[in-house]
What we know:
The protein is an alpha+beta fold. It folds into 2 domains: 111 residues, MutM-like, N-terminal (N-terminal domain of MutM-like DNA repair proteins, Alpha-Beta Barrel); 120 residues, Helicase, Ruva Protein, domain 3. A 4-stranded antiparallel beta sheet has the order 1-6-7-5. The chain has a 4-stranded antiparallel beta sheet with strand order 2-3-4-8. The protein has a two-stranded parallel sheet with strand order 9-10. A hairpin with a 4-residue loop joins strand 11 and strand 12. The protein is elongated and about 55 Å long.
Amino acid sequence: MPEGDSLHRAARRLQPLVGQRLEVTSPHPRAQATRVAEAVDGRVLESVEAVGKNLLLRFEGGLVVRSHLRMSGRWRIEARGTRWVGLPWLVLRGEALEGVLWNGPVLALDSRPIARLGQDVLGPGFDPGTAVARLRGAGDRWLGEALQDQRLVAGIGNMWMAEALWEIRVSPWILVRDASDEVLTEAVTAARRLMQASLADGRPGRNVYRRAGRPCGRCGTIVSSRGQGDANRTAYWCSGCQKEGGEPPVA
């Protein structure tokens, strides 16, 4: 699933369209059913902003389009008139460029769900202390699961959870209630730092994510994986050097 850095990258790509009056179409039948394109066609795009895993496109007249990419969505910027293979969900056609949304499963004229999110981990005003306070409300949950709860802190997904906890040598299986404020602060700070680096160079490094069965590059222990939490997302960790918090419970 695209994580917060991917959405911030998409927002950057679409900036050349800001300030232009756009032709907006929805070639995909499912996207046509949202009626988003007809609502904003011919309006000026005033801003594009990433908030957690959401992209908000603000048009004149106070209309806000919310795009969530789920597992396979992608925003691309292309030359106007580029031929497509397939049917994109949304096309924002400017003077020389067009923004194209592919496989966009969530497309709506509604930004209200954003109000329920925690802070954007990549936001300019991100405060680790506020994030820690929200995480404390998930005391009985595994830290690896809690870090991906967008209501607690927005933007962190499975990959950056795994890589951040590897970075600070903490197991994803520690319960939030057993983690110190220092550990929680280090976890969200590491996630922010790693995602900022990815946003800067576009090449996210992987030390444990999707490397189950391979040796850890730091200590040589074989990387483990196991489903975690209600959503059963796969957690990846090294039991050799991520000792704080221990191992998953016996099934």
